[in-house]
């Protein structure tokens, strides 16, 4: 499974959206250099309030650009970085990857997929009604989260738009993604 990076984004301040950059630097075990969510322990405010000593399984947020077209059919306009992701992708089915998948990006960077982003009401503050577009239910009534995946940095490196992404699936039985 492969794809490519279409945009990279980061923000040193707490903000729902993240400005696009020419490149971002991934730091092993921490996340995106200069990003507010980088660190060994949790940085998302709701997680910090629960237990600030939890490991940060949400160091780097990836989102598939194909989602923007999907929500566009519902009348929403979303561009890279506007939903808070660090890496926007195309051509790789992020939501179908199992937990523990390694994503090799560009020349050196390696991310390990930890789970699904669990979007919150901030999405409706960005565009009213958008939350229902990115979280829904399947035919069996199961919750379906489409707002991207979370990961941790296993090997650092610079990531730029146009970089290739190669997915290396874990060995053994695959565990489906769950919210993190």
Describe this entry's structure for a reader:
The protein is mainly β. 13% of the residues lie in helices and 32% in strands. The protein contains four helices and 13 strands. It has helices spanning 45-50, 66-72, 122-126, 130-134, and strands at residues 2-9, 20-21, 24-27, 31-32, 60-64, 87-90, 102-105, 109-116, 135-137, 143-145, 149-155, 157-159, 164-168. A seven-stranded mixed beta barrel has the order 1-6-5-11-8-7-13. The longest helix has 7 residues, at 66-72. It starts with a strand and ends in a 12-residue tail after the last strand. The model has no long low-confidence stretch (mean pLDDT 95).
CATH architecture identity: Beta Barrel
What is the mean predicted local confidence, pLDDT? Answer: 95
Rg calculated over all Cα atoms: 15 Å
Total domain units: 1
Termini Cα gap: 23 Å
CATH superfamily: PK beta-barrel domain-like
The amount of helix comes to 10-25%
Layout of strands and helices, then pairs:
Elements: E1 2-9, E2 20-21, E3 24-27, E4 31-32, H1 45-50, E5 60-64, H2 66-72, E6 87-90, E7 102-105, E8 109-116, H3 122-126, H4 130-134, E9 135-137, E10 143-145, E11 149-155, E12 157-159, E13 164-168
Parallel strand pairs: 5-6
Antiparallel strand pairs: 1-2, 1-6, 1-13, 3-4, 3-12, 5-11, 7-8, 7-13, 8-11, 9-10
Summarize the structure.
This protein is mainly beta.
Main features:
mainly beta; M1 Pyruvate Kinase, Domain 3; 3-stranded antiparallel beta sheet; 4 helices; 13 strands; 13% helix
